[in-house]
Write a structure and sequence with these properties.
six-stranded parallel β-sheet, 2 domains, 17% strand, Rossmann fold, 17 helices
Length: 425
């Protein structure tokens, strides 16, 4: 079912960062006129593109309070509680991370306070269309809230009834966003980047989207900060002969459920385990309503790589830099210490990707396409700026007086030294 390799799969590695382009040039050319049109015509253009691409005519772009109230009646109590629990766990993790970022240090008679300040405003894009992603809204908004961002808005496409997904609206309300707007695609990205009569301009745009959304972010990245490109879901399972083949099969299937373009891999030291995983996949898929479709996705993006040792498996994982790396070995913690490149590392049989997607408290907005070598998942850090505050006494300034003179003159900037010397004359 999944393609099998016995030597380093170079064809897979060549499709990863840094050998891939974040945006298709032709796609960029397609979205640029849309972005420019919204920049010039504002709300009118957003509404026209919403009618064209989403098939929905809307007079109001901003979601009304009564629409949010009505949304609660369209979701279950269990869904609301799950969102609240996820929010609570994310807040715990990100608050702890935030608490570790500020410190004060004294170097002789110079006091330096290293602290952080939040961005002023953030726009979160939430996909709509065939599926709603309220969990992704929480993953992007909660860290921004913990950071102290003053204004947070959400743009999401309206459904056929003219209103966004009820669960997305409920998630927005639970997180306390300032406003939700009925806009999707490249037009929403442009609206948040430049501002319209209704949708305010923001300092940073975050959130997953289709390839048009990703391309639009690249187009506006010169005027607004954006998050890292996020592609289709990925999982790499690193396993030895002690792993349960059924659990591996279930985790591969769960990620393939996300749709086309994903990557679902197993790197293992055991040929017997690889065979058992293939058998388990066939058995499980035969009992699923969407088994045939998921099986096709696994055939397209799935692979198994048989290696001689765990060290060789780790070496491949670090080269591949998967979004999710599950380690199912006799000593998962020991193996994890050697991992340098992955969006998220999950240890043992009871830490599946799907649990971290929806409930454990870590963020599921992670680098894909091999960007795990140089990028991280969304955290409170993405909504902060580091700031240093310096206060020196006369003795502290005197302590660096000679160094300032030596280095400023060496760099041809003698007036820098004069600014210091003037305080002693």
């Amino acid at each position: 079912m999944m393609k099998r390799y016995y030597e380093t799969p170079e064809e897979l590695l060549k499709k990863r960062w840094p050998d891939i382009e974040a945006t298709d040039p032709q796609l960029r050319l397609y979205v640029e006129p849309i972005v420019e049109d919204v920049r010039i015509r504002g709300d009118e253009a957003v509404k026209e593109y919403t009618q064209k691409f989403d098939g929905v005519a809307t007079d109001e772009l901003r979601v009304r309070p009564e629409e949010i109230r009505d949304a609660y009646s369209a979701v279950t109590e269990g869904q609301v509680e799950a969102l609240k629990e996820l929010k609570k766990r994310l807040e715990s993790v990100e608050s702890k991370r935030l608490s570790l970022l500020s410190f004060t240090i004294q170097i002789e008679d110079v006091g330096i306070e290293c602290t952080v300040r939040p961005l002023r405003s953030v726009g979160c894009y939430v996909p709509g269309g065939k599926a709603a992603y309220p969990s992704s809204l929480l993953m992007n908004v909660v860290p921004a809230k913990v950071a102290g961002v003053e204004k947070i808005i959400v743009c999401t496409p309206p459904g056929r009834d003219g209103s966004p997904s009820p669960l997305t609206l409920v998630a927005s309300d639970i997180c306390g966003v300032d406003a939700v707007y009925k806009a999707g695609g490249a037009q929403a990205i442009s609206a948040m980047a430049y501002g319209t009569e209704t949708i305010p301009r923001v300092d940073k745009i975050v959130g997953p989207g289709n390839r048009y959304v990703t391309a639009a972010k690249q187009v506006v990245s010169n005027v607004v900060s954006i998050d890292k490109p996020a592609g289709p879901s990925e999982i790499l399972v690193l396993a030895d002969g002690t792993a349960d083949p059924k659990l591996i099969a279930l985790d591969l299937i769960s990620q393939a459920e996300h749709g086309e373009g994903g990557a679902y891999g197993l790197v293992t030291t055991s040929t017997a385990l690889a065979d058992e995983v293939d058998e388990a996949l066939v058995e499980i898929l035969s009992g699923l309503p969407d088994g045939e479709a998921v099986g096709d996705l696994l055939a397209q993006g799935g692979f198994t790589y048989i290696v001689e040792s765990i060290d060789e498996a780790v070496e491949f994982a670090n080269l591949y830099a998967p979004e999710h790396l599950e380690i199912l070995t006799e000593d998962p913690s020991g193996v994890a210490e050697k991992v340098t490149s992955a969006g998220l590392v999950l240890l043992g049989a009871y830490s599946p990707v799907s649990a971290t997607d929806y409930g454990m408290g870590v963020n599921h907005v992670l680098p894909t396409g091999g960007y795990g070598k140089v990028a991280s998942g969304i955290t409170v850090l993405d909504y902060l700026r580091t700031v240093s505050v310096v206060e020196s006494s006369v003795n502290g300034l005197a302590g660096v007086r000679g160094n300032v003179k030596a280095l400023s003159e060496a760099e041809g900037l003698p007036n820098h030294s004069l600014a210091v010397e003037g305080r002693f004359n």
